[in-house]
Amino acid sequence: MLAALSASLAVADDFKTVNGKEYKNATVMREEPDGITIRFSGGVVKLRFSELPNEVQERFHYNPERARTYSSQSVAVQLPDQPFTEQQKHANAMLQARVANEQARQRSMQALSDRLVSLDKQERYLLAEIGRIQTAQENAYRRWVSSGFNSTVANTDPDEPKLPSLKSDLDNVRDEKARVRRELERAQQEPQ
To answer: Residue 38 CB: number of other CB atoms within 10 A?
Structure first.
């Protein structure tokens, strides 16, 4: 009987389900109480006996009661895998959260770096403006002194009244730069 069974397993056959789906030139790989697993040109599939015609069910000695018992045992055997699947889902969610947090941290660090570059540009501009006005003041003072303190010679830069405001802006920019640097250092030191 074992020889006959192994011979029937090795022979290619055509199977057609009760719904009309055909599997041509298929080889039975495994026989179970509730169905057969076949290999065909489209891959590997398990066909349940309830999907197959009576002559195939008889050929493989299909017993509905045995199939129900086998199916219920199969479900019972698979149940312990569910907590592991839940663990996998939880681990995936945790990993996605970590990736999202790291991406947010990288974006934040990039924004801080961009802000630092912008503040550097502002600082250079303010220093240049303050320097230009102070140079104009010094040149005016020299002209005034060399003219014998003639009040008509003491022309200064028309932007001279802005000097206190520019110096205040420079202090604010430097304070902001220091704050942004601290934030950037803190972000870089955060555990990933």
So the answer is: 19
pLDDT at position 142 is 86
Sheet of strand 12-16, all strands in order from the earlier edge strand to the far edge: 12-16, 22-32, 35-40, 43-48
Whole-number Å distance between alpha carbons of 61 and 72? 19
Residues in the chain: 192
Q: What is the pLDDT of residues 94-144, one digit of tens each?
A: 888 888 888 888 899 899 999 999 999 999 999 999 999 999 888 888 888
What was the pLDDT predicted at 2?
A: 45
- CA atoms of 9 and 2, how far apart (whole Å): 11
Query: Residue 145 half-sphere exposure, CB side, CA atoms within 13 Å?
Result: 6
Task: Say whether 97 sits in a helix, a strand or coil.
Answer: helix
Beta strands at 43-48 and 12-16: parallel, antiparallel or unpaired: unpaired
Give, for 5, the enclosing helix (H) or strand (E): helix 2-10
Q: Pick the closest to residue 27 from 50, 6, 52 (CA basis).
A: 6
Instruction: Give the integer Cα–Cα distance in Å for 156 and 135.
Output: 9
